[in-house]
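Most newcomers find our protein records easier to grasp once they have seen one. Each record describes a single protein and holds just a pair of labelled lines. A learned vocabulary of local backbone shapes supplies the integers on the structure line. Nothing more is needed to start thinking about how sequence determines fold. The record below serves as our worked example for the rest of this section.
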Amino acid sequence: MAAVTSLSFSALTQCSDRKSPFSSARNLASNSEGLRFRTSLSWHYGGFQASNSSSRLVVHCMSSSSDVATVAETKLNFLKAYKRPIPSVYNTVLQELIVQQHLMRYKRTYRYDPVFALGFVTVYDQLMDGYPSDEDRDTIFKAYINALKEDPEQYRADAQKLEEWARAQTSSSLIEFPSKEGEVEGILKDIAERAGGKGSFSYSRFFAVGLFRLLELANATEPTILEKLCAALNIEKRSVDRDLDVYRNLLSKLVQAKELLKEYVAREKKKREERAGTQKANEAITTCLGEPQYTGL
């Protein structure tokens, strides 16, 4: 799935790696000091494709050719839904993600997945952490998911459901889902069946991040737990390890970029205050010098 350069997100494709520099669609107003954040993102897909010989009815169906939107249409839907400027440190990555998630969304084998949803919500919340407005952050999330013709409320609800379940787990109980009953256990069993060859399953980086989030909330820090969880889900651990390394690198780059943004904003604010103070002083001097002078006789 993804590899990060400067500030980047990438993923696994069936073809060779591609890198494409992407400039922000909406910038931070005029950057007088040339503050720029450069991102490169390459996304490729791969994972597990099972035969459909024993396919069964699923709630979330795969995309059909009749409802496939273009990348331009998806981006336009997002821009129509959220028309306010987005600071470039956030917008650059958002624009990259929506293009790549569009390609995932309209794959023939695509099927909505709660673990995938948890992974995306985790990435989005990390990316938008520190955004100037909580209300705008939520509105952008809804605009993003709606642009992909999916349900933002379902993403949030499924992510919350998995998070609450994971908090109640231990390192051992987390990997014992195949022998247990429950809603989340059923979700994980379904994923394991499809990944193991009894349905359609496409691995993605968001899925890897979702697994990482489950482990994190369950305080399952032992390296062997991830290996056992991947085995229980019929997922290749090597791919998960690689994608989690990239995810951690992305978070590190985001922190650095946001710090630079904070410094830039603080510097610009100080300059504006200094200019305003100088202007007021000049106005006071001008007013004083312009007043008629009277002398008493």
Notes: Strands lie at 5-6, 20-22, 39-41. Confidence is low (pLDDT under 50) at residues 1-65. The chain is about 60% helix and 5% strand. The longest helix spans residues 237-290.
